[in-house]
Amino acid sequence: MCRIGVAIAIPEPWAAALQTHRIAFGDRQAHAIPAHITLVPPTDVGDRVPAVEEHLATVAGKHPPFGVRLRGTATFRPVSPVVFIALSEGISMCEQLAGDARCGPLEQELTFPYHPHVTIAHDLDEDALDRAYQTLADFDCAFEVKKFQLFVHEDDGVWRQRRTYLLTG
């Protein structure tokens, strides 16, 4: 079974900084998951990878590049033990891109409503979640999203980039 995810990778130097913090907070998934904004959550696609790749190429051709600003922390607690960096700009563009990506061969019903964000702490104790929330409360960066990536979950538990799609709409 092939498990994929579709995401906007956070560019450098912010990606490395966020990974370093996630590791410091004790998040066991920090080494396996690059800093990103999820568009399509982990999804089993079986042998449909070629159809998924074709679909994502079509989606990328419909969307132009857009700006994103990451600013401050937020949390999904008490519903889910997650602390994240919030988007203050680019939310609607992420929503539109994610909605188009989750059609066709990637159509699915989500467990929670889509909310673009960058996870910095997940499944940790309350003290670690509080520390993550406080440590990055002043985080602020902006960048242009010109592409998104298809990631594949490998047997070693690491998410690796399989393909990049340029936004050309």
The main pleated sheet reads as:
4 strands, antiparallel
Structural Rg: 16 Å
Give the SSE string.
EHEHEEHEHEEE
Strand order, largest beta sheet: 2-1-7-8
Distance between the termini: 32 Å
Quick one: CATH superfamily? Cyclic phosphodiesterase
Form type: globular
Q: Give the percentage of residues in beta strands.
A: 35-45%
Mean pLDDT: 95
Number-wise, the strands total 8
Structure description:
- The chain has 169 residues and is of the alpha+beta class.
- It has a single domain, classed as Cyclic phosphodiesterase (Cyclic Phosphodiesterase, Chain: A, Alpha-Beta Complex).
- It has four helices and eight strands.
- Strand 7 (147-153) and strand 8 (159-166) form a beta hairpin.
- The longest helix is centred in the first third of the chain and has 12 residues, at 49-60.
- The chain is globular, with a radius of gyration of 16 Å.
- The mean pLDDT is 95.
